[in-house]
Amino acid sequence: MTTAVLTRFRPATTEPGWLRRILILSVLAVLAVLVFAPLAAVFVEALRQGWALALASLGNRDALAAIRLTLTVAAISVPLNAAFGIAAAWAITKFDWRGKAFLITLIDLPFSVSPVVAGLCFVLLFGANTAIGGWLVAGGYPIVFAVPGIVLATMFITFPFVARELIPVMTEQGTAEEEAALTLGASGWRMFFTVTLPNIRWALLYGVLLCNARAMGEFGAVAVVSGKIRGQTATMPIMIEMLYNEYLSVAAFTLAAVLALLALLTLTLKSALEWKYADQLAATHRH
To answer: For the chain, how far is it from start to end, CA to CA, in angstroms?
Structure first.
């Protein structure tokens, strides 16, 4: 009995306490150098010459245009990617069909392709010198060096996030509840809104937050397709680079601080959803 009790309460690791403390301090030191110090430096540099100058730099027309464009692109691309993620996860987890593995590979493609290469592909496809791009420009609907190109590039970079959060959850849940709802006479849309959507809501929100964070911070692909036109196609990350290259450090760091605050807000919501999502998964395993 004593041996069983000792075995039950045996610690998960057998490393000595001093080694565990060294590992923890090493991780904290790396985080301090790579994360906390740069983040603190952004806010310190933004406020180095006072709140008045920082707020005045945010009131600049080009800065406001960059903020507005960033939020607009995120507001367009995130809902579209959420709809795509739900559809892709549904097709992958609820049906067996040939080519499903290929679809999963395509979903992971933005993780392996450089954003700059992705932006260049859009330029080669929709540029003014191409057949499709020239026809669109002639019709008054340019893609490259315009907002539609920025939206397309952002959607390409961010579309895996929602699908990748939903696929494991929907795979674990199976199809029993949906089949029961259909057996009881529910229509397809009613089944989705009353059975499927409530079961995936936290994973969906978690994926949407990750998608939104990447959409607001994307630089590489957007820098290629936007043309960096000040006040028109310059998003917040691009505008920060332009201001810094012009030695307008206060304006650059102030805009970077705004972007960092948006990222911190997203991180806070992400952490809250992680706690809630963990509770939901625990309840699912118990049942």
So the answer is: 31
Instruction: Classify residue 22: in a domain, yes or no.
Output: no
Percentage with pLDDT > 70 across the chain: 91
Q: What CATH code is carried by the domain that includes residue 87?
A: 1.10.3720.10
Tell me, yes or no, whether 229 lies in a domain: yes
Nearest alpha-carbon partner for 110 in 134, 132, 85, 130: 85
Q: Is residue 169 a part of any domain in this protein?
A: yes
CA 38 to chain centre: 21
pLDDT of residue 284: 45
Whether 142 contacts 226, CB under 8 Å: no
* CA atoms within 13 Å, Cβ hemisphere of 27: 5
Whole domain around residue 177: which residue ranges?
34-285
The angle subtended at Cα 175 by Cα 169 and Cα 180, nearest 5°, is 135
Question: What's this model's pTM, rounded to 2 decimal places?
Answer: 0.82
Instruction: Judge contact between 258 and 71, C-beta under 8 A.
Output: no
Residue 157 above 90 pLDDT? Answer: yes
What's the maximum distance between 2 C-alpha atoms anywhere in the chain?
85
